[in-house]
Amino acid sequence: MVNQNLNVLVTLKSAAAAAGLAQLGTGVSNLRQNFNKLGLAAGLVVGVLGAKVIQTAIAWESGFAGVKKTVDATAKEFAVLEKQFLALTKRLPVASADILKIGELAGQLGVKKKDIIAFTETIAKLAVTTNLTAESASLDFARFANILQYPIDEIDKLGSVLVDLGNNAATTESDILQAAKEMAGVGKIAGFSGQKILGIASAFSSVGIEAQVAGSSFQKAVLKIHEAAATGESSVAGFAAVAGLGAKEFRELWKTDAAEGFRLFVQGLGEQGDQAAITIGDLIGDDVRLKKAFLSVAAAGDLMTEQMAIAGIAFDENSALAEEASKRFETTESKLILL
Q: Is 337 exposed, middle or buried (0-12, 13-18, 19+ CB in 10 A)?
């Protein structure tokens, strides 16, 4: 019965079936030995596994059809791409349907053909190691990277930043990414890097500020400071005083490292105590939610400094995502998915 099942399955034309059978062969061999020891019939198990491979093959064909729908490539390029996706399924304990869905979304979001596999691997790992789903991670990360014009083939660095922040903050990766996405447009204009935006987003999210409020508050403040710095020293003097710098010094800092200027401004607000609310009203605006957002993060002491530092280190080391994924891949559940 074992041989009959295998002969039937070998006739499947799908590449996914071929890949499935390669893993099934090893699994059958091991299962046969174990079941013989127990005096059980291995044929029944093989039949079940065979049916699973057929189902997987059919799902694979449908899933890859979705990739073809959104990616513009030749037949030869699709053949190579399919082999690369199959290789991912052997290494990542993520359902093949989810892997192909990420690839489909990558094409829909304009990820270049050469970057689709790297993008898919990063997103799949994030889906395993964070509270982000494969779809939300695909959409939000791609949009975040697109706004910043960040190279997709290096997106794993931002993935490491997000994972490390999620492990070291009183918030979730999903909330951090949502806030960061809201901040990205203005952050890009002022010259903030992706990792520093993620660190700032983590600080706001950690004190309970919702993503949209954090994003709008950040945008208003950064635009005010950016316009003041571009106008002249007299215009930026108020922000400089809060940051503990002279007007000329702060203006130069804003030109070279706006994120550091922003951090010093928030830190200065925290040192003002009750006066901080008045300062925010005078320099940025009287919006109640804006004031609450800045007062909350400013009152958290060194929180923003710490989160930005974590983001910077995680970006440079680029290991947090791989390490976290490795831990998850060692679980029994992950090994069963691979089998």
A: middle
Residue 167 tokens, joined? 């492990």
Quote the CA–CA distance of 295 and 274 in Å, as a whole number: 9
With left for phi above 0 and alpha for psi between -120 and 50, is residue 41 left, alpha or beta?
Answer: beta
In one-letter notation, the amino acid at residue 240 is A
In the structure encoding, which two tokens stand for residue 301, read together? 């002491």
Residue 213: which of 245, 246, 163, 179 has the closest Cα? 179
Question: For 143-198, how does the pLDDT look when each residue is reduced to its tens digit (9 = 90+)?
Answer: 898 899 888 878 899 999 999 999 999 999 999 999 999 999 999 999 999 999 99
Q: Report residue 177 as tokens.
A: 């990414």
pTM: 0.81
Q: State the residue for tokens 């070291």.
A: 168
The conformation of residue 301, written as its DSSP 8-state character, comes to: T
CA 21/CA 57 separation, integer angstroms: 10
Contact 194, 148 (CB under 8 A): yes
